[in-house]
Amino acid sequence: DNPGPPFASGRQTTETREIAQALDDYQGRIKHLLERERSLTDDIGHELRTPTAIIATSSELLLDDSTVTGAVRERVGRIARAARRTMSVVDALLFLGRGEPGATAVRVDLGEVVNDAAQMFRPLAEGKGLDLQVECGGEQWISAPPETAAIVLRNLLENAIRFTDHGTVRVILEPGRLIVEDTGIGLGGVDLGRIFERGYRSDTRGGSGLGLDLIRRVCKRVGWQASAHQRPGGGSRFEVAFDAPVPDA
Which residues, at least 6 apart from 12, have a Cβ–Cβ distance to it below 8 Å? Predict the structure, then answer.
């Protein structure tokens, strides 16, 4: 944000001036890259987030219309799912692009985050015939940057519903820990040591390999721990361990 003055000057020897000029050029390129990154995050926020939210809201309203049936309803459902997924990814990218380590934290009620996310994804789960269950003991407060917990939970829920064709998806909120588990294809054949790596894809799960990487990076930014486990009864279980809960105000 505050680059120093140029190194090169007329008082240097030729050899020293060449080195100083190279450092000045390097600093200039870094400044240019940072400006491009800031412009990109601003463009994402303005040009993608708002229209995507409009698409998601409009498609949900269409799905509430009983006259929308058959193939048209299926197409609208696909639009709604894609819009929801895009919103989750955009929120994560904006947080990672704009936020700094130690970003301003606020008191966040995890119970409210869980209930809001469940309401958002319930139509998607019901569209696949899945039972979306929530086990939440009420309010649980943590200190975190705004929207961080919602970003992580929405991405975990989207993954769980995508890889589950029948049965249940459960969101469990325990003191200091959030769990999303499903009765889907599970993690057999998946290298659990690499599952959060960017671009890692197993033969069984497919996908882009980006969703879990976003979760890992967001958690790392705020000091949380994300882990993946094979569910004993079949399916998968993802856990996020938070810092110690903060007392209610």
Answer: 20
